[in-house]
Write a structure and sequence with these properties.
The protein is an alpha/beta fold. The chain contains 9 helices and 11 strands. Helix content is 35%, strand content 22%. The termini are far apart.
């Protein structure tokens, strides 16, 4: 079994070296496309071990989530039935060793293994520390120590088994997975967790906002959580988040938080399905009235 990481980045210099080296602990090789960074993201990536980490510059390419699948399809000739693609995001850190989970997934015939995103947020205490130390000194604190409050807020496929019968379709904004028979690939019931640091510092949030606005001008999709360049506006009350205790060397998500996240995700899926049904009903009514 081999694991190849694939990722797309732009202007992630403050975190990309750390996250890619983190992934390199379990990835045999890593392939990254840079979509036109104007900070030193590319220089940082090229300073990492070249025998394991390959970087290709793709300036001007509009961001799509499905770009990761394009990378995977380009390298799949080197992968076999037992090998996996890891979808690597520059601001994410996988919790734990994925190998046991992937081995169990393979034994049950699964093609897709997902991960919950533990999204970390600044709190009122974060702002107090930031004001006391100043941004430059505060940013010297390791990322995993300066942001300790999170919520499980999303679930995405993070490992894909590159069987010859798996089709990774990348024409749209998002990847679509099918088997050559047309069936949906089997999903693993067991999930993992990634620590996700979307908001890391005031300067990073401003750069992130500018990068996303520029990308949107080139045709990339906008996301609702990119609504402000103001780090302070992203603060959440600590009482509404889960704290990662200092005595835990790695994140251990409480069972209650998993239950809350599953209920929230189910609610979102039901609402989306109802909205689609309502839209289809409206379209049928319009078609009928025109006829």
């Amino acid at each position: 079994m081999r694991i190849y990481g694939v990722g797309v980045v732009r202007n992630e210099a403050d975190v990309v070296g750390q996250s890619v080296l983190w992934a390199a602990r379990f990835c045999d090789r890593i392939f990254i496309w840079d979509l036109g960074s104007d900070d030193n993201t590319v220089e940082i990536l090229r300073s990492l071990p070249a025998e394991k980490i390959r970087v290709k510059e793709k300036p001007g390419t509009p961001y799509r989530s499905a770009l990761r699948g394009e990378i995977a399809n380009q390298i799949r000739a080197d992968l076999g039935e037992e090998d996996w693609i890891y979808i690597l995001d520059a601001d994410e850190f996988l919790v734990g060793d994925p190998l046991p989970v992937l081995q169990r997934a393979r034994r049950c015939g699964a093609y897709l293994v997902g991960a919950w995103q533990a999204n970390f947020f600044p709190t009122e205490k974060t702002l107090s520390e930031l004001d006391r130390l100043g941004e430059e000194q505060w940013c010297r604190i390791p990322l995993e120590k300066r942001l300790r409050y999170y919520r499980l807020e999303w679930f995405e496929w993070r490992f894909i088994r590159m069987s010859p019968e798996l089709q990774w379709i990348t024409e749209g904004d998002y990847s679509v997975f099918r088997l050559s028979s047309g069936a949906f690939p089997k999903r693993c019931r067991e999930g993992m967790v990634v620590r996700h640091y979307r908001y890391r510092s005031p300067a990073q949030v401003r750069l992130r906002y500018r990068t996303r606005i520029e990308a949107a001008g080139s045709g990339a999709r906008r996301f609702r959580y990119e609504s402000t360049p103001d780090f302070r506006a992203l603060v959440r009350p600590a009482r509404r988040l889960v704290r990662w205790p200092e005595d835990q060397p790695e994140l251990v998500v409480p069972r209650a938080e998993f239950m809350r996240a599953r209920i929230r995700l189910l609610y979102w899926r039901v609402r989306r399905k109802v909205a689609r049904m309502q839209e289809q009903h409206r379209e049928r009514r319009v078609t009928t009235s025109e006829a």
